[in-house]
Amino acid sequence: MARALGCLYMAGAAIGSASVLLPHIASANVAALWTNIGLAGAGGVLGLLVLRRAPRWVFHVALVTGTLVITRAIYYSGDGSSFYSIWYVWVALYAFYFFRRFEAIAHVLVVGAAYAVVLDLTGEALPVARWLTTITTLLIAGVFIETLVRRVRRQRARADEDAAGVTTLVEAMQGALRATDARHTRVALCQTAQRVTGASHCALWEPDPDRRRLAITAVVGEGIGDMEVSLENPGSGVAEVFTTGDPRLLTDLEDSAESFPLMARAGIRAALWQPVERDGTTIAVLAVYWQVAVPALEGNVAPVVGLLATQVAVALERADLLVRMERIARTDELTGLPNRRAWQEELRREMARAVRGGHDLCVAMLDLDGFKELNDSLGHQAGDQLLKHVAASWSSAMRASDFVVRYGGDEFAVLLPDCDLEQAEPLIDRLLAATPANQSCSVGLARWAPGEDSDALLAQADQALYEAKRLGGNRVVSKR
Q1: Which of 240, 262, 244, 245 is nearest to 253 (CA)?
Q2: Which of 464, 473, 419 is nearest to 444 (CA)?
Q3: Going by DSSP bridges, is the β-strand pair 441-447/476-479 parallel, antiparallel, or unpaired?
Q4: Residue 136 pLDDT greater than 50, yes or no
Q5: 139 near 93, Cβ under 8 Å?
Q6: What's the rounded Cα separation, in Å, for the pair 447 and 459?
Q7: What is the pLDDT at residue 187?
């Protein structure tokens, strides 16, 4: 307000100076006009340098003062129709821009009174017509600028709301992207959708491998978990959206001719289904549900949900990538068996379970006999084929609770929960019998002793394996 007022005063001083220096009517009081220019310049300095922290009433006084300065310029110009009267428009524009409507109208009334006086004093011809035209113009210009200002402010408020929604979305998405596993990522995405839409329920629907059915893989809200729909079901909104790739809003399920018994169970009244796409293919549907009818989506809900669906695709791709990376990190590339890292995790888990339940636990280390000679004579490709066959044969011969890994090279390790040495030996014999290509192997078998750490247990199994190899291989040596 201070800056605008100061600039108007300074502009008046500059234009007033130019008007005095340029040719003007002979009846003008030049000395008085120069004092007027000085008053305008002083007002500009005050506005720009002093009034920045002034209370609001000071600006009303300053604007009335500006009206009087303009009126004084008209009077001393010697012409009631002086071009100085155009400056009254500045008063109206300023008032309608910065003040409430009734305050702005009051300033226009002050202008009207001042102009009426100066028209009377200068003896202007047709004063009523000139006064009416000037004041009407001021009101029209003021109302017009007020309308523009209100529109801009509404747009700004809407932009602020949109920015707040996007900020909420970004913050929530950051939380979703911090999730370290696929399940938590999906739940976090649904929580984000619920937060930015104010919905009662949110769910993520994803297809089965055959893309014949959709199932809820994550949900926020009670009553709609563990649901499936057929992709061939014409009465399912989520199936339709997944098939067509077009978002759909159903504002009131009770007024719809379609049947949604699954949603009715949870008291759902309105739904928005947003397709989640990757590379132009729908990979999921983000469903947002309300327990009240929604005549129309307010504000930026629909665009935000669309943006969220884009982020969901990124987050799901990241979650799937994490799953694949975790699987790769725990899997031996050649044989497809778990690797040493997975072995260490599973061994610690089984040892903890054995402690809690008082169960027995055995570990076997297996080494293929003559593997180096096979590689040297037939090549590494033949050795790799043998390792693959051995891994496949042993995996199918084990119990569901057993755990076999490729420990390194031609060495394998087997975890045998819930059995002692006497029970473990027949299980190892079954593995040896399943070994392909008439291949023999040496086995070191050790039983875990309560209180023993994993390194000590593996050392026992390694020592037993070394003993089996020293005795010529193709045998099982047990410890404890």
Answers
A1: 262
A2: 464
A3: parallel
A4: yes
A5: no
A6: 11
A7: 82
List of residues 6+ apart from 311 with CB closer than 8 A = 169, 173, 176, 189
Does the pTM surpass 0.70? The reply is: no
Q: What's the token pair of residue 338?
A: 């778990």
Report the pLDDT averaged over residues 12-17. Answer: 91
Cα–Cα distance for residue pair 443/114, rounded to 1 Å = 112
Query: Are 216 and 224 contacting, i.e. CB atoms less than 8 angstroms apart?
Result: yes
Catalytic residues: 410
pLDDT in tens, 392-445: 999 989 998 999 999 988 999 999 999 999 999 999 999 888 988 788 999 999
Closest CA to 47 of 3, 104, 91: 3
Which strands, in side-by-side order, build the sheet including 411-417?
A: 403-408, 411-417, 361-368, 441-447, 476-479
Distance between CA atoms of 189 and 179, rounded to whole angstroms? 10
Token readout for 133 is 């035209």
Residues 151 and 138: their CA atoms lie apart, in Å, by 20
Backbone phi, psi, residue 231, to 5°: -75, -5
Say yes or no to pLDDT of 279 above 80.
yes
Q: How many residues are there in the chain?
A: 480
pLDDT of residue 80: 66
User: Is pLDDT at 166 greater than 70 in this prediction?
Assistant: no
Cα Rg of the chain (Å, integer): 43
Sequence letter at residue 88: Y
